[in-house]
Design a protein that fits this description.
The structure is a homotetramer. The longest helix of chain A has 15 residues. Chain A is about 30% helix and about 20% strand. Chain A is α/β, with parallel strands linked by helices. Chain A is built from twelve helices and 14 strands. In chain A, helix 3 packs across helix 4 and helix 7 packs parallel to helix 9. In chain A, the strands form two sheets. Chain A has a seven-stranded parallel β-sheet, sandwiched between helices. The first copy, chain A, has a seven-stranded mixed β-sheet with strand order 9-10-8-11-14-13-12. Chains B and D meet through strand 8, helix 8, strand 9, strand 10 and strand 11 of B and strand 8, helix 8, strand 9, strand 10 and strand 11 of D.
Chain lengths: ~350, ~350, ~350, ~350
């Protein structure tokens, strides 16, 4: 059987959990053919030997990164790399393309922050490709569809920002944020990637809960930047991230003191207006990380007392907070139904 | 869009985890339309309010059990009920059908054991519908395809038997079992169903490991019976089941002392012969419950020293050990590709 | 061997986790003899049959509640009861005592809130013993030693308040709180008690994270009340509680915007001044629930940016957040070293 | 206060979990003074900085290994080292001692197996100190008290052997074992030590269950050797070890086909005879790893059908299966009550 009009996709850096999850989605996407997956450490190793859940489900092997070849055979390239590496790869990809239309989706943080000074402060890295920042579109699907559709370079959102922004965008869009916006998020261990470390050592992590990167998490300025696109009033985000003893999931609790009082029922209506037609965003009474685990859904609740509001959201960090949203963006970039390949529910329990 | 030739499916008793998992699979099955889901406790409640992962993904509500109506509108009926209830329902279904062809898949234990005395000993229940036992086909797909295809009544295997039988069938088929066949299995908590109890209370279960129903588990005679269909030599199964602090998954370790010595390499070839063309059974070095979680796969390994053999298998108790295998059987019964709606990999990590 | 000068202790309602933990501590306390443990549901059942970890370690059996007898044979009485029940028991105890000196420690919430209107709003119960509120001393040991020593009735703090107050008291004592004080806490499942429920059903809880009782948790007014004893400026506490997939532990993240800017180093000095001589409070870089699990320690960190402060604390909800602190208070009430019976470290990992 | 007659103890290799647990016990042991703890990687680092649960509870720092000095200042030396290292250390210690009485407790595997060929096969190491094997006493306390009391060198049992032997010794002592003795054990992740690896990486381990080292685990010959001391009949142990998603605990399920039939009640009496006076061994209906976690107890059950027996046991691998039993042995070696410092119950839940 010859496949017509399949989107040919390569993944650069496909041995991590983000790569694993991209493969779980793309190998079964009806309009995608995965043509190349690269790795520095596992060249020639079959994919199913690294990602055991994919064993016997693909004949792909990891290959070296040959940018020229990748550009030649691919319609879309996903980058699932440690921070900093896309600063080199993305210029190389577009240079090699020589005008051939190619779509690039970067799942790292290199092209999310528009202000290179902020980038350099939080990432402790010099930004060596600032000329691409202008064209890089922030890939939070629900709030950037038009930009994503037209773009050749999508900077896919961080996991914490996805949960926080979906909780906050309706308020920001109504210019309701002011003063301190307090975000507390808890993440599962898969967010730390595949490299074993003390913080993800099972005897240490299994019953543990702790805060980390207090006042200094890289995702804080990303959230601030994106909210400022909508909310004219001055406000200041404080993000505190926590390690929770689960594997998948980010749960977010936002506290905000609104710029004006709105009755709770109207606030719920406001969220409803933004989200009732969004397939992947569900307004619920009580978001739960276990309920969305394995799926591309983001469950959101909103409660208020006077001008104080608490919004909760739950996502799977590897799906809506990572590879799922990247596929959703890819669908948009290629004119497909954005839900294609993503409609399955969570595997709860 | 009008859907042609869809299989109309009802689920009796759809509020438990087995029902939840059937819905997760059947709502997205390209040839199935779920027409009715019943519940005693939650009549008129929307499915997504009980199974939160399905929220907004179906408009179905739970209804009362009206056997007449179910038979009239359904091509297939799944029963996901506590043990004993199918003893009444299944006669009622076939009586109401009055010869209309209807396929019934029972996920409980009522029609698995051919010997009613054994049934009554282990289930502490009188078997009130022995006339259906003759026609009930045991639904372990890979070892009963022909029977399942022709059957109107499939008794879907128990979760422990699925893991144990897939580990042992190649030996039984070669008449290699003799003497004690020692099966140790560990299950996740989802096997206990949706009703909270002390044994599944999180503070008790979260770090706990224990054996239960020693020498008396209902699944032991089921395994014995099915192996005896193949293995002529006398042998005796001892199944010890354990509660492990995970949610999904059954991991099985079988020890057998073979009736004759076979070199390990030939033993592996033997398993390979049985399984290399089975999509859902994968021979691996080290089966892991986390790798198959969420999927219909059964991973198997075999190791030997002289005549001693250890076989390990890993399944998801709710999928291959429950609802997934039931859907696989349904596919066969309706002449579909048995993989339909089941091809997705596990969601590891 | 006759034991001299042992404190004779009874526990009313000793079958729950709070009772279990009291017994784990008091049975091995060198100055305590546990003389009576009561239960409504398990009269005549040996303690070790309910609390399996204590099997063979005590000959005590649960008995019925005979207040007269308890008062007669006890120097101290612990109440580990559902909310509302102490409203009747405590008046009955003091009435039966007829002036005999007896010390009562209530681990429930009935005598923590001084304002009965606030109590009735949050507990949905009429307060039927307001005359005891005047004498009831709030048992947060480190900030109330003198009161506890003199008291006959100690209202032991709630678990969330213990974590939050130990994080906030140094700021409150310096009148630094103003405006919104945002407290986010995550608790293990043992905080829900011994009764199985959907929220503590292992398949539901094991990978789950969620917020609950948003804006309405009973511990919020308790925290507000205690901080107001120290902090004269107006401020308003918002507590959001979360269920995390662990068993023991409460982790708290406080955000406060101080009434004046204090350099971070001076802020740390301030905490050091309050806590360096406290055995059970340890200033650390990164509190972790797993590190204090099983122990009476509270680990605290403080970080600031300008006037914004984030304080983290970690406790074991059943020890420092419950039975351990109650024993610490009992030690004080009887003139013992407050550390007696509590010096063991956590069982990490 | 001057402490009289304290046992001066050093620990060589004290940064791992075995060392951590020794410190948790010995720092609070009323007759012990820990005088030295060594480490290769963390010289001069305070103990509480590595073992965070001990923060502020000891002023000890890790030092280099100076055998001369250790021997000079110590009455007892614990070795908590990777396999193979004690082969050099123990000869060095006794040489440095020059006849000074010193007691050595080795928690590694170097001196457990009497047959160096078996050692070399399973440990893949040449045994370079066979002359010490004769004097090395196997430290399973309950079955070797006299030997341990007289010994200067105790080889503390492995974690799996402790659980298996306490399950099997009463049968072996009655010469009831024959043929295959099938042992299946599941361990928590703390048994893998402090070094992060793929197998203990939280996203991989948290929901996982798997068998490992099938037919080749080092603890199998250790169990065989010790049972053979009692059981004259030929029999053959097969140990299959499993990784379970918990932190502490080893749960063991033994299947044996006895050399003669004994009624179940007499079998239970037999176990009762061996264990009713053992403080740390408790005969129960259903051993549970969570119930003994944190404690030195071993809970055991025995059930039979005809000549088939299933024995279950549960221990904490770091306590009874490691450091706790070592302290119990040390108590014996110094003529103390063997329970000293070990009487606390588990911290269940």
């Amino acid at each position: 059987v010859v496949k017509f009009k399949m989107i040919k996709v390569s993944i650069i850096g496909a041995t991590g959990y983000t790569g694993s999850e991209l493969l779980r989605l793309l190998l079964f996407h009806e309009k995608v053919e995965v043509v190349k997956v690269t790795s520095r450490s596992d060249v020639e190793v079959p994919v199913g030997q690294i990602h055991r859940n994919l064993y016997k489900l693909t004949n792909l092997k990891f290959t070296e990164e040959d940018i020229e070849e990748i550009v030649e055979i691919s319609d879309a390239v996903f980058l699932a790399l440690p921070h900093g590496q896309a600063l080199e790869k993305i210029p190389a990809i577009f240079q090699a393309a020589k005008g051939k239309p190619i779509r690039v989706l970067d799942l790292g943080g290199d092209f999310r922050l528009k202000d290179t000074q902020v980038f350099e402060k939080y990432y402790k890295l010099k930004h060596t490709a600032p000329e691409f920042l202008k064209d890089a579109v922030y890939g939070l699907t629900e709030f950037n569809r038009e930009g994503i559709q037209k773009s050749n370079l999508v900077a896919c959102p961080g996991c914490f920002p996805t949960g926080a922004l979906l909780a906050l965008f309706p308020l920001a869009a109504e210019n309701l944020l002011t003063g301190d916006v307090i975000i507390n998020s808890a993440t599962g261990s898969s967010g730390s990637g595949t490299d074993p470390s003390e913080g993800t050592h099972h005897p240490e992590r299994a019953f543990d809960y702790k805060a980390y990167n207090v006042f200094s998490h890289r995702h804080q300025p990303e959230i601030q930047q994106e909210l400022e696109r909508f909310n004219g009033n001055p406000f200041e985000v404080t993000l505190t991230t926590h390690s929770a003893p689960m594997v998948r999931g980010i749960f977010t609790t936002v506290f905000a003191h609104l710029s004006k009082e709105i009755p709770e029922s109207r606030l719920k209506d406001l969220y409803c207006g933004y989200y009732e037609n969004e397939h992947f965003i569900r307004l619920v009474d009580q978001p739960r990380s276990a309920v969305v685990a394995g799926s591309n859904f983001c469950d959101v609740s909103v409660v208020s007392r006077g001008r104080k509001v608490i919004i909760n959201s739950a996502i799977d960090n590897l799906v809506k907070g990572g590879s799922g949203q990247a596929v959703q963006d890819m669908n948009l970039m290629f004119g497909l139904d954005e839900k294609m390949g993503l409609t399955f529910p969570g595997t709860h329990p």
